[in-house]
Amino acid sequence: MPTAAPTSSAADLAALVEFRHLLHAHPELSGHERETAARVVAFLAPLRPDSVITGLGGHGVVATFDSGVAGPTLLFRSELDALPIVEHDVEGHASTVHGVSHKCGHDGHTTMLCGLAQRLAAQRPVRGKVHLLFQPAEETGKGAAAVLADPRFDDIRPDLAVAIHNMPGFAKGALVIKPGAITAAVRSIVLRFTGRTAHASEPEKGENPSLAVADLLHGCASISVNDVESPDFCLITPVHVRIGSVAYGVSAGDGEVHLTIRTFANEGLAALQQRIVHLAGSLAERDGLRLEVEVVEDFFANVNDPSVAAVVLDAAQRCGFDVVTPDLALRGGEDFGLFSERFPCCMVLLGAGEDTHPIHNPHYDFADDLLDIGVRLFDTIVRSTTSD
Length: 388
Ligand SMILES: [Zn+2]
Ligand SMILES: [Zn+2]
Description:
Oligomer: single chain
Strand order of the largest sheet: 1-2-4-3-5-16-6-15
Number of helices: 9
Mean pLDDT: 96
Bound molecules: zinc ion
Strand content: 15-25%
């Protein structure tokens, strides 16, 4: 029976911290992770994975360590992309790209997978194979879909897939493991009203969308149930609104409302969107406007497979890590959810501390002392599922 994986050697850990800082200093936005992917490939090269696929679904990379013996196919996934956020107060390895920074910790998650690669290089799995997927474009919700649509992913088909995300707000080092939904289904939608401009002195000669926009916002506020404990939880957040332009002689002839909408079940999201579109449609009809609806970003809920969650829980317990089992899912979205639609998956959260800056905050930085926890967890999962 395999036991818990040990702590990485000081030399391996130092290499990981240095690599995380390198990634942090050179962040790239979603869909543009060319250099980050190249750095990952360069880090992995001396570890001699059995195969490396690059350019997967954009700049994605898959490195595979194969025992050559029949057995389970495991996949561990991290993300390559950073965010369009101006960084504040990170010392020593600050972003060198103004306006772009690693504010979600994807530099840390990627480094954890590189740490697993160090372990797999030292000791290949006894049977089966392990794929390390470095996924592009998570923040826009496009990368998982692009990877899954790449024909080269067809041969991978994992029996078990795991992703980790650090999470400020939970005790540092605690693993948050929950069967069922762990993150929400999230969709970004735009509702566009088109009417007709008129002279501002004669608004009755045009169709001004301002009341439709206002009534739509009021309507959304009354539909929205921002209570995670309620079975009716469905959150609608207005993120951007525009009508007409700054031209004081003109009564606006068009307007748009940008929303993010969230539920804990994928099915509920479609129903929520339908309610909003129905409301917007009736307002458009009332005011003589044309309505267009666009879906911009789409995140499936991460629904953890109970058997994979049990494997992760067992590994966490063997390692002696603190485990938190929340009753409720988080309201955020994460595009690993699309993998959980197709394969038995578990997304595990790793507490980054209760008093640290939240992700997507300009002051946030991934905590290096979490690296070894992720690596040990992954390594223990590999040994427990691939040993005889
Ligand atoms: Zn993020
Ligand atoms: Zn993230």
